[in-house]
């Protein structure tokens, strides 16, 4: 396949020149010259549903960045325990020559007490001390138009899509 891709432009130009001389290609080369090029990039999308499995009320934000694209943010959403909400539509690419990855962050503010309106404990996903690290959970062609679920547990976050599941830690970082 790789050789076909590299030879195709040469075959087309050679073919055009030889047509002026009534030269006939062997059938194998004729087929290679007329094959359509392989798909190089397909733009895709997925919905993101956020689910609070922690047992606490949280105000949560999801951020997604496909390599080279702008950061997509869900904004902040208050979720009670076991509540699930679609919060974001993300864009990503697939194809033979794509090299990008999908990177994710989840930030949270935990409600101090049930009767309080204060969200005072700051939480986040990942393992970096500065909070700059992103969790890689790459979306694939089978995730196109589907829902990727982000499940927030007491001490971890799961990214669940049709193509697979990834996990990362979820921890308090304001202490």
From TrEMBL:
Endpoints of the signal sequence: none
Pfam families: PUD1_2 (PF18457)
Domain of life, per lineage: Eukaryota
Domain Up-regulated in Daf-2 per the UniProt entry, residue ranges: 42-120, 122-170
InterPro entries, A to Z: PUD1/2
PANTHER family: 5C820-RELATED-RELATED, UP-REGULATED IN DAF-2 DOMAIN-CONTAINING PROTEIN
Protein name: Up-regulated in Daf-2 domain-containing protein
Taxonomic path: Eukaryota, Metazoa, Ecdysozoa, Nematoda, Chromadorea
């Amino acid at each position: 396949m790789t050789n076909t891709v590299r030879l195709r432009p040469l075959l087309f130009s050679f073919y055009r020149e030889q047509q002026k001389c009534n030269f006939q290609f062997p059938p194998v080369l004729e087929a290679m010259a007329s094959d359509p090029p392989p798909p190089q990039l397909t733009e895709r999308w997925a919905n993101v549903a956020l689910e609070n499995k922690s047992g606490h009320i949280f105000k949560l934000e999801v951020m997604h960045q496909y390599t080279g694209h702008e950061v997509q943010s869900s904004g902040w959403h208050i979720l009670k325990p076991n509540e699930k909400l679609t919060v974001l539509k993300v864009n990503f690419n697939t194809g033979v020559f794509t090299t990008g990855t999908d990177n994710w962050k989840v930030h949270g503010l935990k409600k101090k007490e049930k009767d309080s309106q204060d969200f005072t404990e700051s939480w986040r996903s990942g393992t970096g001390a500065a909070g700059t690290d992103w969790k890689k959970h790459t979306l694939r062609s089978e995730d196109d138009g589907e829902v990727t679920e982000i499940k927030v547990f007491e001490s971890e976050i799961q990214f669940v899509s049709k193509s697979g599941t990834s996990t990362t830690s979820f921890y308090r970082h304001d202490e």
